[in-house]
Amino acid sequence: MEMLLGRVEAGVGLATHYHADWVTPSWDRAMDKLTMVNSHLFFRRRGAVGGTTAFVQRYKGEEPRIPVMSRLSAAHSADPPKLEGALPMLEREYPAPPHRVPSTEVGVILATLPATSPEAFRDLAERRCAGLEECRFIGWTDPLRKAGALPLPGASVDAISFTFVRRPGTPDRALWNCEQFGRSMSEQCLLRGS
Predict the structure, then answer these.
(1) What gap in Å lies between CA 26 and CA 33, rounded to an integer?
(2) Ramachandran region of residue 177, left (φ > 0), alpha (ψ -120 to 50) or beta?
(3) Can you spell out the DSSP letters for 82-100?
């Protein structure tokens, strides 16, 4: 909401999209990468549509109502809050829901990985994703740092050991934490924030 009030981190600039470095959305290959902030990558559309003209509309003071998002955000509820004044006031009047969404509700598998060969991680992910057209498997070798639900807390993000992503129309992609498990090809390594 800070961004909606016109407060933008200078390094992010004209970004209109972002994602965490352990996922690979199909749209990021069609955009220009602007920067990386910790474990998040920021992008803008290519060409004139990604320039300052993407930011000409003024914020109307409310968010669109997206029913599936209502569990996560008061802004998507049947009676969304109006953005009036400072962000602290908004957070005080409309606190975030106290619960977190279990990973099974959003098509993500969060798993503790066995202390076996890292080559076995992909096999485990493929077995867990069997029969699913789209699947995101995130694994940790340290069970104490494994996330139990989304969104992933920062300590869990930093401790991810392996990810596997299956999307229709793209090859399955497996990435390892190369600080834990050296790989011969850097394309197999999870990106880490700087």
Answers:
(1) 14
(2) beta
(3) P--S-HHHHHHHSPPPS--
Give residue 178's Cα distance to chain centre: 20
Question: Looking at this protein, which amino acid is placed at residue 101?
Answer: V
State the pLDDT at residue 140: 92
Is-contact 165 24, C-beta < 8 A? yes
Two tokens at 44? 């803008």
Q: What one-letter code names the amino acid at 36?
A: M
Bridge partners (DSSP) listed for residue 139 = 111, 162
Report the distance separating Cα 164 and Cα 121, nearest Å. Answer: 9
Read off the pLDDT of residues 88-135 as tens digits, 9 standing for 90 and up. 433 343 343 333 444 444 468 899 998 778 888 999 999 888 888 888
Query: In which order are the strands placed within the sheet that holds 40-45?
Result: 17-20, 40-45, 31-37
CB 129 within 8 A of CB 135: yes
Within 13 A of 133's CA, how many CA atoms are on the CB side? 2
Q: How far, in whole angstroms, is CA 95 from its chain's centroid?
A: 21
Place of tokens 């999209």: 17
**Residues of the chain below pLDDT 50:** 83-106, 194
**CA–CA distance, 114 with 127 (Å, rounded to integer):** 14
CA dist 153 and 157 (Å) reads 6
Strand partners for 112: 140
| Beta-strand relationship, 162-166 and 149-150 | unpaired
